[in-house]
Amino acid sequence: MELNICYLYPDVLNLYGDGGNIICLQRRLQWRGITSNVTRAGIGDKVSLADYDLMFIGGGQDFEQEVLLEDLHRGKASEILAAVEDGKTFLTICGGYQMMGNYYQTHEGVRCDFIGAVDLYTVGSPTRMIGNYKYRCTAGNGGSLVVGFENHSGKTYLGDGVSPLGTVEAGYGNNGEDGTEGVRYRNVFGTYSHGPVLPKNPEFCDYILQTALERRYGSAQLEPLGDREEAYAHDIMAKRIGAK
Ligand code: GLN
To answer: pLDDT at position 67, please?
Structure first.
């Protein structure tokens, strides 16, 4: 078995070491004897996402999101739209998550018309939502508790046709108002969690890998890994992040 992974915009969207999620995905496959092939596709690179099983997009500042707009609409946006509708798996973080929606209106009033692959929009706020936080994925998204770090001024609001990834237990999440965090639409996972998020949240990582493997092979069973260190790091943060 193998998974082909495309790391989109590693050159501009890699805030807080989000690229470390790629290493985590590869290791957790390698430890199970599953091959992973990673391709990096930055600004100016042509890419056919039909060749990939799992796409990753990290976070970035407002400036970087504006920088990649032209490239996005020169071809990658239509590739992403088609891959989403084809049930391909995406993990998108913060700015990369916002980019999957209809638009992002920065606090300075700059409107970035994004991909429109997921029915959501984001509006910049005067205060930044920063800090360690935790949220519970819904049962349909594996049900695990995710611990992470968020830093965004954008408030994201989900449209009727999409569900949140989870509910906030401590911190802000999508907008600090409705208790939702992230999004799940088809096999698109969006979260505000930087970090990188996956190493400290092995259950969440495996759920994403399982989704991609099932889309490619119809069914797949990931054998459990020890995860002693991962669980220790996760549980320490879960305790440290009290309810805010
Ligand atoms: N620029 C976006 C915001 O501030 C995303 C930030 C990020 O990716 N951390 O909301």
So the answer is: 83
What span, in angstroms and rounded, lies between the C-alpha atoms of 197 and 88?
20
Q: Is the CB of 153 under 6 A from ligand 1?
A: yes
From the CA of 64, give the closest atom in ligand 1: 1
pLDDT value, residue 16:
84
- pLDDT of the residue at 2: 98
CA of 102 to the centre of ligand 1 (A): 15
What values do phi and psi take at 136, rounded to 5?
A: -100, 120
Closest CA to 94 of 191, 195, 18, 197: 191
15 lines ligand 1 (CB under 6 A): yes
CA of 192 to the centre of ligand 1 (A): 9
Q: In this structure, which amino acid lies at residue 173?
A: G
pLDDT at residue 118, as a whole number: 98
Atom from ligand 1 closest to the CA of residue 128: 4
Alpha carbon distances (Å) from 184 to 111, 159, 167, 231: 24, 11, 12, 24
Report pLDDT for 223. Answer: 96
- CB of 94 within 6 A of ligand 1: the answer is yes
Residue 89 contacts residue 53 (beta carbons within 8 Å): yes
pTM for the predicted model, two decimal places: 0.97
What is the reported pLDDT for 64?
82
Closest approach atom of ligand 1 to CA 96: 8
Segments of the chain with pLDDT less than 50: 244
Q: Residue 243's pLDDT is what?
A: 61
